[in-house]
Design brief:
alpha+beta, six-stranded antiparallel sheet, homodimer, 5 helices
């Protein structure tokens, strides 16, 4: 608590968040004395949420005991000496990268699901952000699929940026970032500080060189069809009902003229065949198998109903995008079934 | 499938449910042939829910393979020979007990939470139903608290009823019983059949003699106060915030004049004191400790905001009821804290 308002800092080993509540008559009836105290976050949240009076008194006694009271309630919390709290540096850069909050929230939701859930290759649990001039490229991959989003920044960066941020930390940032406006990204060697409105959010960066995925995405495709995203999603959903192994969820796709067939076969349970009309742009044929779970997760990130599926054969990656738009690319590796 | 409609039977070791869909042009476009097939319940539910066409064709081939298809989807399910399905007797009584569905749903929600979660004394995992003449008494207890509900039936029963039905089975009945109307209860030696609309729901009965709890509830009380149920609930909720042992959740209640204080003390975390106005009907004093979790669950079953708390001392049961109304009684045993 300072004269200008209340500073709240929370931190675990990965993330530090600092917020500020400005000294304003509508929020603070009176500030009697400045001071600092450390209390357990989960209790203070529950207390404030469950108190039913509009104003609440907070007072620190003997530098440690924290009294929180209203007319009828009194909480007496054991505090911790602020001297024992780690000194976390939340410095800012002179020239942060600036991006619209909504755009950055979209980046997170369109890529984060594709990060690896396994800690074997720690770098793959992160989202890689590369910035060159004013082009920002964000990639997540678990080595079976890849999600890529490209956005243009208003301002060029001076130095090339290439950092990988833990995916779960960015999901946490997404959860606390509600307001509209600009997000400042202050990049350091081993950490990134996000700044928006009255909040600072700092996370560590993953060490190491993110794999080069630029050659994974082909430039030409032999197979190219356009389909309704929502219909294709339902077809995949139904084709997966009888699959026992929900982790793999392998379905077969057959492209033939303007018809596609998605099928699955689980000998003990039964089989499914789903048919759907598409627009086969190159009138080509193909039989390919892939994870319906990955395909459905990839389909979810798009907003328009028409999508394009691009392929080169049964062992080459499948590309999903909105028609002619390479700003959001989803890639799925096929699964060999023979 | 019969000419008059579709009969569906599902069963585990505990519960059997049989439903009927009448042959009606709006439901069945055509019934080509009668027959019986056994298929895995979870798949058929998912298939029917996820198909997007209004009508669906179902056909059994070779007595086992079950085809479910629409214009674009085809499911080929492996069925099981109906001869291998256990022969479950769903006979009815001549004179079932009849009760309003909503009344019985209330009985379940006002008692089931108090059954024992431990299998050490299996009988206590059930809800005991006793009927004498036209008085039906339903009790659940885990030996630390008790929930009791009394309802009057329209018709007298000929023979005394005293059965104990597994609490979780009654919760399952509650989940499938949506309609309004009458519920028929057909009671047998080792099972009960519930019948409502076009549904039969049969459950086993727990063996043994349910403990006699009639002497647990005192007739006279030295302490008697009236309080707002919702305010008392919030007070208990806040008084429990700092308690570490969420299983026990022990709070202390002090009654003094028209004030009560609910407090808790967790030396490592801190302490809470909550004050509230009540109407002390006997102007008595008391200090008593109990589980705030049990008290909050008991408070939830009432509908009116004014409730009465009745006590006889710090080692005697606490009774909670709506004012002067003994049809719903909640009892909580105090906890000795010294």
């Amino acid at each position: 608590m300072k004269e200008d308002g209340l500073y709240l800092t929370g931190s675990d080993s990965d993330i530090t968040i600092k917020t500020f509540l400005k000294n304003d008559k509508e929020i603070f009836e009176s500030i009697e004395k400045e001071g600092t105290i450390v209390i357990q976050g989960k209790y203070i949240l529950d207390i404030i949420r469950k108190l039913d009076s509009e104003f609440v008194n907070i007072e620190v006694i003997d530098g440690l005991k924290t009294l929180i009271w209203t007319e009828t309630s009194e909480f007496n919390l054991n505090g911790i000496d602020p001297k024992e709290y780690p000194n976390i540096d939340l410095e800012e850069n002179k020239s942060p990268v600036v991006i619209d909050i909504d755009v950055f929230k979209n980046i997170i939701s369109q890529t984060s699901f594709a990060v690896s859930k396994e800690e074997v290759r720690p770098l793959l649990t992160g989202i890689n952000i590369k910035i060159e001039n004013n082009k920002m490229e964000c990639i997540a991959t678990d080595s079976y699929r890849l999600a890529k989003k490209i956005v243009e920044l208003d301002k060029k960066v001076e130095n090339l940026v290439n950092i990988t941020i833990p995916g779960k930390n960015l999901l946490e940032l997404d959860r606390v970032m509600h307001e509209e406006g600009n997000l400042e990204i202050h990049i350091f060697n081993n950490k990134v500080l996000f700044k928006f409105n009255d909040m600072l959010f700092q996370t560590r960066i993953l060490n190491g060189t993110y794999p080069d995925t630029s050659k994974l995405i082909p430039e030409d495709f032999a197979i190219d069809f356009t389909a309704s995203r929502t219909k294709f999603y339902s077809v995949l959903d139904r084709a997966s009902i009888l699959i026992n192994d929900k982790d793999k969820n392998i379905v077969k796709l057959e492209v033939k003229g303007n018809d596609i067939t998605v099928s699955s076969n689980s000998p003990e349970i039964g089989k499914v065949e789903e048919n759907m009309d598409v627009q086969n742009n190159k009138d080509s044929k193909l039989n390919i198998s892939f994870s319906s779970k990955y395909m459905m997760e990839a389909l979810k990130v798009f907003t328009s109903d028409e999508i394009e599926l691009l392929m080169n054969g049964e062992v080459n990656p499948i590309i999903i995008r909105e028609i002619g738009n390479d700003n959001v690319i989803q890639l799925i590796l096929p699964i060999k079934t023979y």
